[in-house]
From TrEMBL:
This is Transcriptional regulator, TetR family. Residues 31-50 bind DNA. Keywords: DNA-binding. It comes from Fructobacillus durionis. Residues 8-68 form the HTH tetR-type domain. PANTHER family: ACREF/ENVCD OPERON REPRESSOR-RELATED (PTHR43479), ACREF_ENVCD OPERON REPRESSOR-RELATED (PTHR43479:SF11). One of its GO terms (molecular function) is DNA binding.
């Protein structure tokens, strides 16, 4: 977990250890006893910060989502409409890259399967009607369909990146996302 994101050392250790456990088991099957034993803290110390494992997971996810949203808000206010889209993709991939262990753990097979949905819902306002999705007179695709397609395709690229090619620089992933927004699926596949 990015040290800039978590200032409290004990909370950081708890989050980092939860992430480590996802290599061997699903995140919600981790117990407070095994977590505190692995860290070397008392259970009472854990309960100073969290009510249970679900609360710890929820707080970690909330921090990750808030970080992306804050970066997106700053990006949105710094640029005009013409420059904003690529910068938004860079902001998303930058935030994920800086906390890659947490995102890999939470979005992986042993993570929280609902986290991706909460993350998608959180960034939708930046991509939807008030964000970068623009409907045109040439399209008869309803805006909500287009928004859902764009958000899901972004996440497909991000998931592939963190699960199969995590060493790729976040800027390159952002450019891939940006380019896929300008090509049809057939063009991406190389079919004319």
């Amino acid at each position: 977990m990015d040290s800039h994101l978590i200032k409290n050392n004990t909370k950081s250790k708890i989050f980092s250890t939860l992430i480590l456990f996802t290599k061997d088991k699903t995140i919600y099957t981790v117990t407070v006893a095994e977590l505190t034993r692995k860290i070397g803290i008392n259970r009472s110390t854990f309960y100073l910060y969290f009510t249970d494992i679900s609360d710890a997971i929820s707080q970690m996810e909330k921090l990750l989502i808030e970080n992306i949203i804050n970066v997106l808000k700053r990006t949105r206010t710094l640029h005009s409409d013409d420059a904003i889209e690529l910068d938004m993709y860079k902001a998303i991939t930058y935030s994920i890259d800086n906390n890659s262990d947490a995102f890999i753990a939470l979005l992986g097979t042993n993570g929280d399967q609902q986290f991706a949905n909460r993350l998608k819902q959180s960034i939708a306002p930046f991509i939807g009607p008030n964000g970068i999705t623009k409907t045109t007179k040439n399209s008869d695709i309803p805006e909500d369909f287009a928004e859902d397609f764009i958000i899901n395709s972004i996440f497909s690229i991000v998931l592939f990146w963190i699960n199969h090619n995590a060493e790729m620089p976040y800027e390159k992933v952002a450019k891939i996302i940006y380019k896929t927004r300008r090509l049809s699926p057939l063009e991406i596949a190389g079919v004319n």
